[in-house]
Specification:
The structure is a single chain. The chain is mainly beta. It has a domain of 93 residues: YaeB-like (Elongation Factor Tu (Ef-tu), domain 3, Beta Barrel), CATH 2.40.30.70. The chain is 0% helix and 30% strand. It contains no helices and 9 strands. The chain has a 6-stranded antiparallel β-barrel with strand order 2-3-8-7-4-9. Strands 1-5-6 form a 3-stranded antiparallel β-sheet, with no helix packed on it. The structure holds S-adenosylmethionine.
């Protein structure tokens, strides 16, 4: 366990129950410039560096039509995060908050989400800006931020590439 993984004053971990199988499948891998957490932004920005989302086979076919959208929501698995913290001290000052009151990567099911700007598609890869995950982070899902088929109240007109 690295120093980054050790508990800070006031933080609390629990012995988690045995993990069940949620049936998740890693459908790809995210390539970013950041090899370690110290360099990685806490929240991606739309003008951040270009990152590549690679889809594994057989999922490339599921990208059909995605070029029509300017912004995508990306869900990823924060695979290097500890999963046993219930109280965390984001500023390492002894003051704590519950894990569900934070967007910290350290959570029982370490799912990260980001809305990214789609720059282009290259075969089974998408070039995007706005990510905040480590190089090699597993991809869980991709969807348009808004979609004309989402039903009432969607802002579909705001999302298509124009
Ligand atoms: N945007 C996502 C969200 O809000 O769900 C993630 C936010 S989280 C604060 C971003 C931080 O998670 C990064 O600064 C980095 O420290 C950490 N992180 C990124 N990729 C990770 C990975 N694969 N495993 C563990 N931690 C990761």
């Amino acid at each position: 366990m690295s120093e980054q993984d050790s508990l800070r004053p006031g933080e609390l971990s629990v012995a988690p129950p045995k993990a069940g199988d949620a049936g998740l499948e890693f459908i790809g891998r995210i390539h970013t410039p950041w090899a370690n957490r110290a360099d990685c932004p806490r929240h991606g920005k739309p003008d951040g560096p270009l990152c590549r989302i690679e889809l594994f086979e057989p999922w490339a076919l599921a990208l059909q039509g995605i070029e029509a959208y300017a912004r995508l929501e990306v869900l990823y698995w924060l695979d290097r995060a500890r999963r046993d913290l219930v109280q965390q001290s984001p500023k390492n000052d002894g003051r704590t908050l519950g894990s569900f009151a934070l967007r910290s990567p350290l959570r029982p099911n370490p799912i990260g989400t980001a809305v990214v700007v789609l720059e282009s598609r290259q075969g089974n890869s998408l070039l995007v800006r706005g990510l905040d995950c480590l190089d090699g982070t597993p991809l869980l899902d991709l969807k348009p931020e808004y979609c004309p088929f989402s039903g009432a109240g969607n802002a579909g007109a705001a999302n298509p590439r124009g």
